[in-house]
Amino acid sequence: MRRIGLAVVLTIGLLAAPHSAESQPAPKVPRIGVIVPVEPESPSEPNIGAFRQALRDLGYVDGQNIAVEYRYAHGKTELYPELASELVRLKVDVIVAGAGDPTRAAKKATQTIPIVGVGMGSDPVASGIVASLARPGGNVTGSSFTTGGEFEGKHVELLKEAAPWIVRVAYLRDPRISKRTATQRALEATRAAAHALGLVFQTVEALELHEVDSALAKVSRKRGSSLIVEASLFFQVHAGDITKMAAKHGLPAIYATKLFFMNAGGLMSYGPSLAALWRAAAISVDKILKGAKPADLPVEQPTKFELVINMRTAKALGLTIPQTLLLRADQVLE
Q1: Contact predicate 328/170, CB 8 Å
Q2: Helix-then-strand count for the chain, H and E
Q3: CA within 13 Å, CB half, 285
Q4: Which secondary structure element, helix H or strand E, spans residue 15, and what is its range?
Q5: Same domain for 191 and 294?
Q6: Are residues 208 and 329 in the same domain?
Q7: If both were cysteines, with which of 31, 122, 317, 318 could 182 make a disulfide (CB 3.0 to 4.6 Å apart)?
């Protein structure tokens, strides 16, 4: 009887084993939510492309061992809260937000889901996104957009080098963001750089495109004028119109972001590599998925800055870009 009982037990065990293995749940695929502020809705867009490639380099393939939910705001800041709430409802494991404002919207939508901000302005601490750069605290980490006044002041130096004859610098501002600490700091750094080079400095503000055109027309009436365009979402959305206006009024102009303005025919851009910041975001996502807490991941500051020069636009403006400047450029558009 004992032998018969043992055989029955073994038989039942063998029959149950395959069934038990089949009933094991499939491994959970991490889900990442991404809020994209302005960039075109395309996986091949340079910044999103850099993020996707960085994920692949880390071993993540969208649709296989990771799922990425992209949400595009198309330059409409009022959509940020809605997009962030939607990602929270989807119960994503990490939210990646492509600027300071969408990061704030995500932080307001959840205090538990980890958030990685990409280029969170000049001072994420002053804007209340994180407690400190070294130890962010809470559920947010990521990268800032600038490292301080050196970045903004460089715009003045590059303009003077490209067009030695300029005696004036106009700084185009967006009143919607003019009161922020970071934008005030950028303004003062630019003003100081202009004065150091003996240039007349003025600010001009515009809320709408027709106001931009009117302001640039007034600026251009004074000989030796040039233009610096503030890093504003509104200006980025309308980059094509603004670069055309600068050209129409004969103003040498420099911009903070390559993607929007240089693709639209801008003369020069100098600023942090957004693609590099998006690659860094993928690395932060990887660390978080492996157990790291955003509170313990220091906020990174950009280390790669890109100078891009458009020779066709320079020629149209009658500028002869010095060879010394061309040699320093990361990209020269012919």
Answers
A1: no
A2: 13, 12
A3: 31
A4: helix 2-22
A5: no
A6: yes
A7: 122
